[in-house]
Write a structure and sequence with these properties.
The protein has about 190 residues and is of the alpha+beta class. The chain has helices at about 5-20, 65-75, 85-95, 170-180, and strands at about 25, 30-35, 40-45, 45-50, 55-60, 75-80, 110, 115-120, 125-135, 140-150, 155-160, 165-170. It has four helices and twelve strands, in the order αβββββαβαββββββα.
Length: about 190
């Protein structure tokens, strides 16, 4: 052995990776899972569009998360894209002290066609059937086939960046963009 401490290098690159990912802004969503009284949910920023034709999305979930086995077992999940005024909902579903159904207390929600819980007041509530789960390392990449979509008329979103929530308001942020001289035709 040449005296290099490879575990320290791995720790350093892991820390650097987490720091780099904090610089990537992401929309905030709640993934909901389960049926009947066995329901749970979690806050994520790892949601992305995979395909428009056919309509598919991709979400990455830690396999140790309480949502993962319920998604695997039932084959369905909900995606709730949060609005700017739902920071408290994001906090609630990322609170490690709250488990399962406790996360839904005092929050408006209903069951989708498949029985999966969907949150009220979300910018979009999407019900998905699991198309595929690809397990790599600590996470499962879940490909969801859209089976139902509900859209809100609101256009103000919640974003997570550098360990804090930021609100994006369509009207206010368009005014800011205009103030700095970017032609609105490029952002509409």
């Amino acid at each position: 052995m040449n005296g290099l401490d490879l575990s320290r290098e791995t720790d350093d690159i892991g820390r650097q990776f987490r720091s780099a990912m904090r610089r990537l802004a992401g929309g905030v969503s709640i993934i909901t899972a389960g049926k009947n009284d066995e329901i749970t949910g979690m806050t994520v920023t790892s949601l992305t569009s995979l395909s428009a034709d056919p309509p598919r999305l991709l979400v990455n979930i830690n396999r140790q998360a309480s949502s993962f086995p319920l998604i695997e077992r039932h084959g369905v999940f909900g995606v709730n894209i949060l609005g700017a005024d739902q920071r408290d909902v994001a906090d609630r579903f990322s609170n490690g002290r709250l488990k399962g159904k406790q996360r839904f207390e005092a929050i408006a929600w209903s069951r989708g066609k498949s029985g999966v819980p969907l949150l009220g007041g979300a910018l979009a509530a999407v019900e998905c059937e699991v198309d595929e789960i690809i397990e790599r390392y600590s996470h499962g990449m879940i490909v969801g086939r859209l089976i139902a979509v509900e859209l809100s008329r609101r256009l103000s979103g919640l974003v997570y960046w550098n360990s804090e929530y930021l609100e994006i308001s369509h009207d206010i942020d368009l005014e800011v963009i205009a103030d700095v001289g970017i032609p609105l035709s490029r952002v509409r």
